[in-house]
Write a structure and sequence with these properties.
Shape: globular
Number of helices: 10
Strand order of the largest sheet: 2-1-3
Order of helices and strands: HEHEEHHHHHHHH
Strand content: under 5%
Helix content: 40-55%
Radius of gyration: 20 Å
Structural class: mainly alpha
Largest sheet: 3 strands, mixed
Length: about 200
């Protein structure tokens, strides 16, 4: 939670103070120095871990924002999903829309997606199963589609593409891409053969 707290401050370049912070785990009190660090009311034994900021914080600009990259990524994500929308089922599309936001943060966990969709993991798994899908399959297919689109952009390094897809290491992305296409991403890009992989 302290990491997320610091990230929020770094994003806006200000010493943001939340309205409240809640933790699921139980504790009677918080050390004085940590209470000072957070600067707000801290609750324990809550239903979820969360940091609550004032609505006005949403209007603060991200100091390190890259409008060009953001616009580019939004377009890629929309194209990837739109390109498969005809054959995408209702729950697949919902999961994809949630996962797209989490990929660059490397937090592609079922629990996070369920939280966004307002369902529990058993319900989501059951609904995906009714469409002959699994959560892992939806994530893997989406990553594959986005990877192929990102690789068409010569200015995007493979290492950055790996990060955008939620891989902690470029080698993990290389292995996944080879599983999808039979070749490494750098080789596919260098050979100019990306068009043969569809999309």
């Amino acid at each position: 939670m302290t990491v997320l707290f610091r990230i929020c401050r770094q994003l806006v370049g200000r010493r943001l103070t939340p309205d409240s912070i809640s933790f699921v785990h139980r504790r009677r009190s918080l050390p004085a120095d940590l209470q000072l660090f957070f600067g707000c009311q801290v609750r324990f034994s809550s239903k979820l871990d969360e940091i609550v900021y004032a609505r006005s914080v949403l209007e603060l600009p991200v100091v390190s924002a890259d409008p060009f990259l953001n616009k580019l990524l939004e377009r890629f994500c929309e194209e990837a999903i739109a390109g498969r929308r005809v054959r995408s089922s209702d729950w697949r599309t919902r999961v994809e829309n949630a996962v797209v936001q989490l990929l660059p943060h490397g937090r592609i966990h079922l629990a996070d997606v369920c939280s966004q969709l307002g369902v529990n993991s058993r319900t989501l798994s059951r609904r995906l199963a009714s469409e002959t899908l699994t959560f892992a399959k939806v994530v893997d297919d989406l990553r594959q589609d986005l990877a192929k689109r990102y690789l068409r952009e010569p200015d995007l390094p493979v290492s950055e593409i790996a990060w955008l897809l939620g891989y902690q290491q470029t080698s993990s992305f290389n292995h996944a891409f080879k599983r999808w296409t039979g070749t490494k991403p750098s080789r596919a890009r260098a050979s100019g053969s990306m068009s043969q992989f569809g999309q």
